Amino acid sequence: MMDRIKDNCRKVLFAVAAGQDLSKLEIKERTSLSMSTVISSVDRLVKRGLITFSEERSPRGGKMRSVINARPSARAYGISYKSGTLTATATDLKGEEKESVSQEVAEGVLPVHSVLSLAFALRDRAPDPLAIALSLNCENKQDVLKALEDRLGVKAISASNTAAVAYLALWRGAEIPVAAIGVGNGVKCAVIDGEGCRTMDFGKLLSPGLSAGDGRVLSALSASVVEEVLRGSNYRGHYFMQGGRPTETRDLADYSRALAKTISALVEIANVTLSPQETVLFGEYLSEAFFERVKEDADAQNLVYYQLDKRAFALGSALCALTKSFFS
């Protein structure tokens, strides 16, 4: 992270946030900046209320020593929507999750008041927001962003769940460029490099239905559903392609292998075009076994699998807000 921060003041803030009870000399050593630059940056950050500064005498006596820390109450908010759940999470300047609230909401257009009420509930627990990122795929996203800015008085940033995962990987220690590939109804990719974060849509996936043998027709876009049906005693060796009505019969195992090869091909395209140091593959329904097939087909040593819960996307969004607002 430190290497990608260009602004000296932000380098000092990152060093302070990553440490504890630092002196100006320790900040100088961690940032490789001159002492005059460290002193002026500390003064600016104290005036902005982002860090605290005090002095104490060494236990052994002698000169006074500066004690510099990130302001404990400072927070970045991330708000995400995933599978019927709206989640808001707050992190401190170290990027550590501190508070989180969630509520169930109906699919479709999200009412602005639902997002605002959740943001206010988070503010009751973490009353000092400095930045907000919103990872919602909804038609009225701009209305929600504007409402958040007007009511909370801080800049609200638009993100995506895929970008949120890329920021999560960055703060977990991945070197840039780092890419995240999300598999759902379609495939999306986000990459963080020296220019910032970019998101690409790789397109939709073929969506056949699965005949489970008991009258149910399940979505085959989920690798875990595919494997569940394959393992089930009621699987009869076929599934239905739905084109208005079930008509064609195919072998389900062939579909599972084809799906893995499709994802592995997209991973290879991302590796060739983006040259990431690390590529994170995630999907609400991906299984570890399916990931291993993708990794084997793609022959990608830089590929890792994240099994994420709904709160992880809000955390990644908060890290996006933190990075873009303070550490870019």
Structure description:
This protein is of the alpha/beta class and 328 residues long. Among the domains are: 2-70, Orthogonal Bundle (Arc Repressor Mutant, subunit A); 75-168 and 311-326, ATPase, nucleotide binding domain (Nucleotidyltransferase, domain 5, 2-Layer Sandwich), CATH 3.30.420. Helices cover 39% and strands 29% of the residues. The chain is built from 10 helices and 16 strands. The protein has helices spanning 8-18, 24-31, 35-47, 112-125, 141-152, 161-171, 223-231, 252-274, 288-298, 310-326; strands at residues 51-57, 64-70, 75-82, 85-91, 97-104, 129-135, 156-158, 178-183, 186-193, 196-204, 209-211, 217-219, 239-242, 246-250, 278-282, 303-306. Strands 5-4-3-6-7 form a 5-stranded mixed β-sheet, sandwiched between helices. The chain has a 5-stranded mixed β-sheet with strand order 10-9-8-15-16, sandwiched between helices. Strands 1-2 form a two-stranded antiparallel sheet. A hairpin with a 3-residue loop joins β13 (239-242) and β14 (246-250). α4 (112-125) runs parallel beside α5 and α6 (161-171) packs across α10. The longest helix has 23 residues, at 252-274. It is globular and about 80 Å long. The termini are close together. The model has no long low-confidence stretch (mean pLDDT 85).
